[in-house]
Amino acid sequence: MSDVVLAEGEHDALVTLVIRGMARGEVSAQQQALADAGLILIKGPIMMPTPAGTAFVSESLRLPDQAPERERIMATFHRFLPVNRALRDLCTAWQVRPDGSVNDHSDENYDADIRDRLDDIDDSVAPLLKRFTEDLPRMAGYREKLTEALAKLDDGDDTWLASPLIDSYHTVWMHLHQELILTIGMSRKEDEELEERLVAESGA
Amino acid sequence: MSPVSRTGPIDDVGLVPFGSGLQRGLDARSLCTRGIELETLAGLGLPVGSGLTIPVPNVQGFTAPDRAKAAMNLVEDIAGREIGTTTETGGLVLLRLSASAPVAAAGLPPDLTCLGLKRSVIPEGLGTKARGELGVAWWKTAAFIAEHALGVPIEDLGSLDFDYPDLVERVEPFRRLCEEKGSSPFPTKRSDQVAAAAQAMLTRWNSPRAARARRKQNLPADLPLALHLETIVVTEHDAEGHGFAMSRDMDSGQFAPNGLFRHGFRAGSERQQSGLPLSSLPNGVEMLTGVLAELEGRLRSSVIVDFEFGPEGLALVGLEQMRKPNARVATSLVVDLVTRGISSEIDAVRAVESTHVLELLHPQPKLTGAEVPFVSGLAASPGAAVGRIAITSESAVDLAESGESVLLVMSETTPGDLPGMMAATGIMTINGGSASHAAVVARGMGRPAICGAGDLRIDHEAQTLTAGAHVLRAGDVISIDGATGVAYVGELMIEPPAPSPSLTAVLGWADDLRRMGVRANADNGADATTAMDSGAEGIGLCRTEHQFMGDRLPLVRRVILSHDFDAEEAALAALADAQREDFRDLLRAVGDRPVTVRLLDAPMHEFLPASADLAEDANQARMLEHMHEENPMLGVRGVRLALMHEGLYPAQVEGLFNAWVDVVSSGDAHPELEVMIPLVSIPDELLMMMRLIRRVNQEVSSRSGMVIPFKIGTMVETPRAALLADQLAQWADFISFGTNDLTQLTYGFSRDDVERRMLGTYLSKGLMTASPFAELDESGVGALMSYAVDKARSVRPDIKLGICGEHGGDPSSIEICERLGLDYVSCSPSRIPVARLAAAHARVGSLISVNSVNVAPVVMEKSGIGS
Question: What is the ipTM of this complex?
Answer without folding.
Answer: 0.90
